[in-house]
Amino acid sequence: MERADGLAAISEEPARLTRRFATAALKLATNTVAGWMRAAGMQVRHDNVGNLVGRYEGAHGATKTLLLGSHLDSVRDAGKYDGPLGVLVALACVERLNARELRLPFAIEVFAFADEEGLRYHTAYLGSNVVAGSFDPTYLSLVDADGIALADAIRAFGGDPAALTQDARRPDDVLGYCEVHIEQGPVLEALDLPVGIVTAIAGQSRLEVTWQGQAGHAGTVPMHLRRDALCAAAEFMLSVEQLAEERAGLVATVGQIAAEPGASNVIPGRVTLSLDVRHQDDALREQALEALHDQAFKIATRRHVVVQWQTVQESRSVLCSPWLIEQLERAIEHVGYAVHHLPSGAGHDAVVMAGLTDVAMLFVRCKAGVSHHPAESVMLEDVAAAIAVLESFLASFASDGPTL
Ligand SMILES: [Zn+2]
Q1: How far, in Å, is the centroid of ligand 1 from the Cα of 347?
Q2: How far is the CA of 211 from the centre of ligand 1 (A)?
Q3: Where residue 397 falls among pLDDT bands split at 50, 70, 90?
């Protein structure tokens, strides 16, 4: 907890926590964690994109490596735990192994990814994409708000943008990836549980839905002759909420809306809204989208407005690996808590790492489900529980895991 406080003080901005990719603040945070890793008996290296990797060797003859970790970059005005908690819990487990001079039949590498949030280049997961071998080299020419190209930012941070592909791990060398992360939702708190096992990271569709009606004078156009785009959009928004309430596991949100021309005495002629739909089952997400699409066009026809339905971004759901989930179940039972499974509605490095190896995630309860905000908070006892569970997970892994 002290380490999380210490890292939270390392920021680009004096009054709030902001740590973007490849900044001096990230460098200082990375070097701080590197010092703790060395003290825990790990060999430390920095890869070309700026990820920090601490390696704890396995027993003699160990050939494979289990990957742990999370990210050290943050959103703007962030909390202390989204990202760093996963790095620090993994580090604490290695620290305990080292204190007992215990070597497992596999090596452990703790990753502190340099970019997950994508705040600087608006492209998330730059760090884990390099490790998973899925980095898109066209990103190197992206520029940040100050006009600095990604390739130059990587160079300034000490890496070689031409060598990124060399940092990709080979799937054969890796056992799996397990990430500890705050839940960023209120489910564990409602159940009074310190930790939960992630079943899948939900697939997501982001859409832009535009409603074209007819603007007009709020005083002179009678109600039956109006084509009010905002009323059509409002009816649609409530049907989005209703559908999501009716379907288990579905979440759907209209988070942005703009009405034009946007005056108190003018009938809205055109409305653009965002639609975000997520489910851990891709087929059910697609079915929900179809239903919402039909609903939008029905509303539009009845209200004599024209609707445009545009997909902005789509990502498929990522399943956590059943055998790793089983290992986490046993670890939680061993430590003495009830086992609870839940999907992750937010994206994580594990999404990208799933392209390389089997992945698992352990969620830690956070206060009121708040994240991406300075009020982000976790309890000491819950962090202790997460460390105990990850420690037990590593031990059971060592005793009866897959052929190592
Ligand atoms: Zn995170």
Answers
A1: 8
A2: 35
A3: confident
**Per the structure, how many domains does the chain have?**
2
Q: What is the pTM of this model?
A: 0.90
**From ligand 1's centre to the CA of 140, what distance in Å?**
23
| 37 and 164 inside one domain | yes
Q: Please report the pLDDT score of residue 322 as a whole number.
A: 97
Task: Specify whether 174 is located in the same domain as 252.
Answer: no
Q: Are residues 251 and 215 in the same domain?
A: yes
Q: Do 130 and 272 lie in a common domain?
A: no
On whether the CB atoms of residues 73 and 11 are closer than 8 A, the answer is no
Domain of residue 13, residue span:
2-201+317-400
Ligand 1 centroid vs 165 CA: distance in angstroms? 24
What pLDDT, on the 0 to 100 scale, is given for residue 403?
41
Ligand 1: distance of its center to the CA of 263 in Å? 39
Task: Find out whether 285 and 203 touch, Cβ atoms under 8 Å.
Answer: yes
Final residue belonging to a domain, choices 265, 285, 315: 315
Q: Which amino acid is at 218?
A: A
DSSP string covering 302-322: HHT-EEEEEEEEEE--EEPPH
Give me ligand 1 centre to Cα 71, in Å: 6
Please give the distance, rounded to the nearest whole angstrom, from the Cα atom of residue 393 to the centre of ligand 1. 21
Q: How far away, in angstroms, is 114 Cα from ligand 1 center? A: 12
Q: Per residue in 161-198, pLDDT tens?
A: 999 999 999 999 999 999 999 999 999 999 999 999 99
Do 168 and 19 share a structural domain?
yes
Burial class (CB in 10 A: 0-12, 13-18, 19+), 28: middle
Percent of the chain with pLDDT over 90: 96
Taking the centre of ligand 1 as the mean of its atom positions, its distance from the CA of residue 33, in whole angstroms, is 17
d(CA 358, ligand 1 centre) in Å:
19
Distance 373 CA to ligand 1 centre (A): 12
The CATH number of whichever domain residue 396 belongs to comes to 3.40.630.10
Q: Which of 266, 284, 315 is the last residue of a domain?
A: 315
Residue 217: which CATH number? 3.30.70.360
pLDDT on residue 313: 85
Packing angle between helix 282-303 and helix 229-246, nearest 10 degrees?
150
The rounded mean pLDDT for the chain is: 96
Are 65 and 44 contained in the same domain?
A: yes
How far apart are the CA of 82 and the centre of ligand 1, in A? 4
Mean pLDDT for the stretch of residues 322-349:
96
Stretch 364-388: mean pLDDT:
97
Which residues are 35's β-sheet partners? Answer: none
Taking the C-alpha atoms of residue 35 and residue 32, their distance in angstroms, rounded to an integer, is 5
Confidence at 404, pLDDT banded by 50, 70, 90:
very low
294 CA distance to ligand 1 middle (Å): 35
